[in-house]
């Protein structure tokens, strides 16, 4: 359960990077540097993979009634799930635009 708590926090950090990258698309061109590249990798690639893993495990735990034993705060569960749905929606929209 400690690993799941850790991964849910990592997912939150990656989701913040996803949010920053999503908003940066409407800003003027950002300079190319390592920080921008790291944000893009964390926001677009790592966030989706970690979110899928965390949300699937949490959904399984919810179905078997063991979710409260994880010790993960409910706001973190909700925020990660909302980001996950937003990521899926944005991927579908971007795919249909091509």
Q: What keyword list fits this structure?
A:
mainly alpha; elongated; 0% strand
Structure description:
With 98 residues, the protein is mainly α. The protein contains three helices and no strands. The chain has helices at residues 2-24, 34-64, 74-97. Helix 1 packs across helix 2. The longest helix is centred in the middle third of the chain and has 31 residues, at 34-64. The mean pLDDT is 83.
Short description:
Helices cover about 80% and strands about 0% of the residues. It has helices spanning about 1-25, 35-65, 75-95. The protein is an all-alpha fold.
Summarize the helices and strands and which ones pair or pack.
Layout: H1 2-24, H2 34-64, H3 74-97
Helix pairs in contact: 1-2, 1-3, 2-3
Query: What is the string of SSEs from the N terminus onward?
Result: HHH
Q: Count the strands?
A: 0
Distance between the ends: 41 Å
Multimeric state of these chains? single chain
Strand content: under 5%
Mean pLDDT: 83
Q: What integer value in Å does the Rg equal?
A: 15 Å
- Major sheet summary line: none
What class would the helix/strand composition place it in?
A: mainly alpha
Helical content, roughly? over 70%
Uncertain runs are none
Q: What coarse outline follows from CA principal-axis ratios? A: elongated
The total count of helices amounts to 3
